[in-house]
Every structure is written in structure tokens, then in C-alpha cells.
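Okay, can you check this protein?
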Amino acid sequence: MCGKESHSKRGAYSGDEGLFCLWQEALSMFRTAVIERGMSYDRFREDFINAHTFHADPDPGIRNDHLVNLGRIGSLLQTREDLVRKYRSHAADKEAFLSCMREHMLQGVRAKSRSINFECFFSDQVLSILADAANDIPLFKNRVTKHEMNKLFNECSGLTGGSLVANQNTVVAYFFSQLNYFGLITAKYQHVISNNRLIMCSRGKTYMTQRDLSSALSRFGSVDRPAKIRIDRWVLLIKSATTENV
């Protein structure tokens, strides 16, 4: 573990130990804010940087070193969300820290930019509710499980051995629009679904594009009222589950 007393007394994170401590604290805050409390990744990143920007150390050298270290961690959080998620359970491991920084700093040219995702991380409880909602509405042609909802929302990746096929394009479009309306997923959700090829259109021949989702949402109307009532009820339950532990 990092020697917190060494930097807390002078109020700055300097040297290699300071960089390690910032990395540890970033991963710890990520787990608490994003994974446990459902905070958006962007809000977590901004809060972490703001919380570590100012200190009272008067030494110019230490102040400069602190800014350099914070800049490195800030760059990691800004451009390598994939690494933050990869190493989130290894905050006490200095070897993992060195490996993470090598991937970030020494492979910058080949580094993967921030993944395109829903900017959420739902708990097991929320994933169970999402599965129940998807099956009750229903959103997809086939029944889904908590595991499949984890793949869809937390990992933003396609299913192994098959695809999610919309039961009705309009219903899927409205459901995701409501998740966005209540701040549960990014406003760019249509791009995420399209870019990652997450859901197939109801005919099962092509993946839903941004145009498909936008068009389907505009067509969602009075004829879909029974589905609207179910969706609105389920989204409120999902919202409640994401905030009850905040």
C-alpha cells in the first residue's frame, strides 16, 4: 500500500510513491462511485481530478511534481477507461500499477482510446431487474438473463453464440430513451448500440443503427401504450435500485 502519511503531511502527491497513491485512490474511487453507486464515468473522472488539484505545499519542486503526477493519472482516466476497468481490483498491487502505467505510457501510439459504452456499471441487483424488465415488456425475441444484461450494459459487447433481436424496434428505442432520460445511460446510447452492434432489428437480418433507433423512437405512439406503461414502471424501478445505495 502507498505511504499515505508521506504525502498527506505536505499535501501533495510527489515522486513515484505519489503517483502510485494517486493511482490507488483513482481505482478505489472508481469502484465506489461508478460500480457501487452508478455514477457516470465522466462525472467520476472530473470529481477525482478536482478533489486532487489543490494542496497547501509551498515547495515549488513538490508542487510541480504533484501536477506532473496528477496529469499522468488524469490522462489515464481521460483516454484509457479500459485500463481503469481492467485494473480496478488490483489497487494494492504495485506490480499491477507498473503494468498499467506501461500499457498507458509506453504503448501510447497503439493504445486503445476510451471505449464507446453506455457510461454505466450496473450492480447484480440492477442487472436482475433489467433482465426481469426485458422479459416482461418484452424487449427481445428470446428471454434474457442477468448475465446477458451484464454483457449488454456493463461490457457493451455482443453475446457469445447469438445476438439480441428486438421484439419490436419501437419498444426497444423507447426503453433506451427512457434509461437516458433518467440519467442511467449516456445520451449517446444510439451511437453505442450502433457502433458496438449490440441489438438486431426485429427481422433479425441487420443490426440496429442510429437511424433505425431514431426512426423507431419517432414512430412510438399511442398504439404502443401498453408497452409504454410497462416500460415506464420498470425504468422507475431500475432508477430506484441504482440510487438506493448512494
